[in-house]
Amino acid sequence: MGERGAPGDPGADGIGLPGKHTATLLPGTSFELETGTFTCSVSGTFVFMFSMNKSSSSSSLYVQLRKNDDVVVSGYSRASHYEQVSGSAVLFLQQGDTVYLTMSGNVGGAANHATSFSGFLLYPE
Amino acid sequence: MGERGAPGDPGADGIGLPGKHTATLLPGTSFELETGTFTCSVSGTFVFMFSMNKSSSSSSLYVQLRKNDDVVVSGYSRASHYEQVSGSAVLFLQQGDTVYLTMSGNVGGAANHATSFSGFLLYPE
Amino acid sequence: MGERGAPGDPGADGIGLPGKHTATLLPGTSFELETGTFTCSVSGTFVFMFSMNKSSSSSSLYVQLRKNDDVVVSGYSRASHYEQVSGSAVLFLQQGDTVYLTMSGNVGGAANHATSFSGFLLYPE
């Protein structure tokens, strides 16, 4: 699980969000904090969960969970205030597949651990 | 995991929501996209997660995760804007039990993958 | 999984929230409903998920998932209306570690099963 650092203004789609620290790294995990990208080293069924805190400083927050280049699930808020945006997915990954978050809008709450990205291997292939 | 299609106006409780497509189907899964209903074929402990995007076009969104006829967990939003409503449950199911979502209010974001319903078998009985 | 009862005014941080009932108790689980505290009896990797419904009766809802005394992940909303706040974490726990929720602000929707706290053992050590 990687807690998200303040992402500044990651802006455009397709750019992985950097992480701040990792609370738990599971066996076989390849999660690169600098890019916020998980690269699959053991093929199988994985579960991913994210939760982001929309800051009041942007008009919307749109978060995408991506497998390679494709959006799998997303979360969207147009709240004018701080608000939580959460989502999850069960994904079958082959070795080399990547999973990461992209977003537009601003997140807050990094100091309060209000943004997170977690995942785990459910069944090896 | 079934991404939800635009549900039109599913309205009244007790009516399963149709799905649009399935990203991952796990072994032993019986998920009927037409009705959005999961029917348990292997008894055991399951995990379910959902996330729906409330549209600005209804005054509230109320989503229920049901086991057979009972509400297990729900999510509720009275936002006037687009907003994410997420929930999850760990459930023990016997063969033949059904799990599905019902809701009142309108969801948006189907085109953006912002509504999803996922589940997996955690431990067979 | 423990569905949350109406917590009255649990207020200050560091006080576990009482639960109302438990839908599923997994083998090896030690979850005390009176205090809402999970105590680890089998060391390993666990997954926890929570979802709370912010009531319109408080200006904010701030929910913390804690391991022992530390905040692992949190959820925050400043909605003026009913709103769902969800989060999750993958945690490695040693025997005797505790996991529980704390919060400030008011939750609603207890009658509607809109607040929940779930967890499961993913891999024993």
TrEMBL record, chains A, B, C:
Keyword Transferase applies: no
Compartments (UniProt record): Secreted
UniProt GO cellular component terms: extracellular region
A Pfam cross-reference name: C1q
Domain of life: Eukaryota
Keywords per UniProt: Secreted, Signal
Domain C1q: 1-125
The keyword Secreted belongs to this UniProt entry's keyword annotation: yes
PANTHER family, alphabetized: C1Q DOMAIN-CONTAINING PROTEIN, CEREBELLIN-RELATED
Protein's name in the database: C1q domain-containing protein
